[in-house]
Amino acid sequence: MWIGIAALLVVIWLVSFLALHISGGLIHLLLVIAVISLIVHFVRGRSSTV
Question: Taken in order 34, 36, 37, 42, is the CA torsion positive or negative?
Fold first, then answer.
């Protein structure tokens, strides 16, 4: 789930940054959230809950 969220946020960031040339802080915030979600995913590892 975390990898999917991170991938989605990175794609949204790339589309917004490259296609629309929006240089606001919120666009870069998406990238930061994506990186944090990837770090959380790898630190927590696999969950054994069902």
Answer: positive
pLDDT tens by residue, 16-33: 777 766 566 666 777 788
Q: Do the Cβ atoms of 31 and 10 come closer than 8 Å?
A: yes
Region at 32 (left for phi over 0; alpha for psi -120 to 50; beta for the rest): alpha
Its pTM surpasses 0.70: no
C-beta neighbour count of 6 within 10 angstroms: 20
CB 3 within 8 Å of CB 38: yes
Q: Please report, for the chain, the start and end positions of each structural domain, with discontinuous segments joined by +.
A: 2-44
